[in-house]
């Protein structure tokens, strides 16, 4: 990751940076020789159900990208987020489990109380339920964004939606450093603008959009990548180490 001259923002920022870097920048290893495809990592908190519903409902069946979602949820109750979203989109939506593999036209949702990490080959890993929280959250956007950036490089797209506590603001820097794109929801359509605003202030957000324009931008970005010459995944995908548990 390239050096930046930005202030750390105190002990919390340094802690997030250290932990996120450890997840994203491990030792490289051989990767399977599969063609790459875009991967969209979304993060939301307060107001996130509506935001995610609007975006996913705007994506067509057969959308040629994989989607991974982190939403801050209560750890005390079973989540039905995947079931709700499944009824609002043409895409397949499932709650993520360790060992699942990212694929086109499918959405994986992090379960409550587990960080979601993308490892070599697009394989998903969940942290333990007592793994350290990041920005007071588990799952947090930071491990997801960092690991997607590390695995998919310029084929990574981050989307920061309505929510609090600034989650994702370090991960978007890694997405940009690796050549990916970043979208943030705008203030008027956010129920809580803290998450998008904190990411926007990094200077690494490419597009600040109203909620109803985000799906169209994702379609455009994915189409742009489809037009690029395909590369073998072995050229772009070092291994992502596991989150400490």
Task: Describe the protein in words.
The chain has helices at residues 11-24, 48-57, 81-86, 141-152, 169-177, 194-200, 211-226, and strands at 39-44, 66-71, 92-95, 106-109, 116-118, 124-126, 156-160, 181-185, 207-209. The protein is α/β, with parallel strands linked by helices. The chain has one domain: 3-Layer(aba) Sandwich (Rossmann fold). Strands 3-4-2-1-7-8-9 form a 7-stranded parallel sheet, sandwiched between helices. A two-stranded antiparallel ribbon has the order 5-6. Strand 1 (39-44), helix 2 and strand 2 (66-71) form a beta-alpha-beta unit. The longest helix is centred in the last third of the chain and has 16 residues, at 211-226. 48% of the residues are buried.
What's the arrangement of secondary structure elements?
Elements: H1 11-24, E1 39-44, H2 48-57, E2 66-71, H3 81-86, E3 92-95, E4 106-109, E5 116-118, E6 124-126, H4 141-152, E7 156-160, H5 169-177, E8 181-185, H6 194-200, E9 207-209, H7 211-226
Parallel strand pairs: 1-2, 1-7, 2-4, 3-4, 7-8, 8-9
Antiparallel strand pairs: 5-6
